[in-house]
Amino acid sequence: MTTLRPFTCNDMFRFNFVNLDPLTETYGLTFYLQYMAHWPEYFQLTEAPGGEIMGYIMGKAEGHKDNWHGHVTALSVAPDYRRLGLAAKLMSGLEEISEKKQAYFVDLFVRVSNTVAINMYKNLGYIIYRTVLEYYSGSPDEDAYDMRKALSRDVDKLSVVPLTHPVRPEDIE
């Protein structure tokens, strides 16, 4: 049976194989610790019966007024555990937490080349809100889609009216 539980400091020594995917952003130790300290409810993992980490999600609550939202910083599932619905389960948990915090929407950034993830997010109800030019560093830099899903507090769905023009990373609120 798969277990969904909070990410702990000990998990920092056990989750590297989940991050080996080239489409998964990897951060420094202090970045992960900051998320655990500030938004522990948004940092969850799925664990196999044998104790293997199958995947994790890391996020936060941010913004002000009608821009108050949940943000998915990272979502990754180990290759052996893909296509089992784990990403959807992790996303659903983050959305529930954001609902409890009375957020208007949940957002995330995804590489424009990551069509598998984009289609998964669309199937979960996310829309492409805008394109962020050269968001991901590399050779060459890659654009990102800012994808959003309105939550129940956004009755008129104003948070998911797509922008018609791309933005640069420095223009993101």
Automatic annotation (TrEMBL):
<dbReference type="GO" id="GO:0031416">
    <property type="term" value="C:NatB complex"/>
</dbReference>
<dbReference type="GO" id="GO:0120518">
    <property type="term" value="F:protein N-terminal-methionine acetyltransferase activity"/>
</dbReference>
<keyword id="KW-0963">Cytoplasm</keyword>
<comment type="similarity">
    <text>Belongs to the acetyltransferase family. ARD1 subfamily.</text>
</comment>
<dbReference type="InterPro" id="IPR016181">
    <property type="entry name" value="Acyl_CoA_acyltransferase"/>
</dbReference>
<keyword id="KW-0539">Nucleus</keyword>
<dbReference type="InterPro" id="IPR051646">
    <property type="entry name" value="NatB_acetyltransferase_subunit"/>
</dbReference>
<comment type="subunit">
    <text>Component of the N-terminal acetyltransferase B (NatB) complex which is composed of NAA20 and NAA25.</text>
</comment>
<comment type="function">
    <text>Catalytic subunit of the NatB complex which catalyzes acetylation of the N-terminal methionine residues of peptides beginning with Met-Asp, Met-Glu, Met-Asn and Met-Gln. Proteins with cell cycle functions are overrepresented in the pool of NatB substrates. Required for maintaining the structure and function of actomyosin fibers and for proper cellular migration.</text>
</comment>
<keyword id="KW-0808">Transferase</keyword>
<keyword id="KW-0012">Acyltransferase</keyword>
<feature type="domain" description="N-acetyltransferase">
    <location>
        <begin position="2"/>
        <end position="152"/>
    </location>
</feature>
<dbReference type="InterPro" id="IPR000182">
    <property type="entry name" value="GNAT_dom"/>
</dbReference>
<protein>
    <recommendedName>
        <fullName>N-alpha-acetyltransferase 20</fullName>
        <ecNumber>2.3.1.254</ecNumber>
    </recommendedName>
</protein>
<dbReference type="GO" id="GO:0005634">
    <property type="term" value="C:nucleus"/>
</dbReference>
<dbReference type="Pfam" id="PF00583">
    <property type="entry name" value="Acetyltransf_1"/>
</dbReference>
